């Protein structure tokens, strides 16, 4: 998505922890983060199949595991999503959520 890599780098450069929570397989998400050159900016990657994730989105599990690994409360976190299913999961996890639709 245009601007996403720059957004992640800007947020991380300001000392804000960044996590990725995706319904894709855990190993695929980790490879994608690496392929984008973002391992230095992303502190936590949680995908389907990650320990502790019982259900995929729209369940909040992926977000709750990521927040736990980051040591961050949902009340101070921001979820950025590109789909209604992801937004539902983010909101259910208690995050303030911004939706940027993906074409």
Note the topology.
Layout: H1 4-13, E1 19-25, H2 26-35, E2 44-48, H3 61-70, E3 78-81, H4 84-92, E4 96-99
Parallel strand pairs: 1-2, 3-4
Would you mind describing this structure in some detail?
The chain is of the alpha/beta class. Helices cover 38% and strands 19% of the residues. The protein contains four helices and four strands. It has helices spanning 4-13, 26-35, 61-70, 84-92; strands at residues 19-25, 44-48, 78-81, 96-99. The strands form two sheets. Strands 1-2 form a two-stranded parallel sheet. Strands 3-4 form a two-stranded parallel ribbon. Strand 3, helix 4 and strand 4 (96-99) form a beta-alpha-beta unit. It is globular. The model has no long low-confidence stretch (mean pLDDT 95).
What attributes characterize this protein structure?
about 100 residues, alpha/beta, two-stranded parallel ribbon, about 40% helix, globular
Brief rundown of the structure:
With 103 residues, this protein is an alpha/beta fold. The chain is 38% helix and 19% strand.
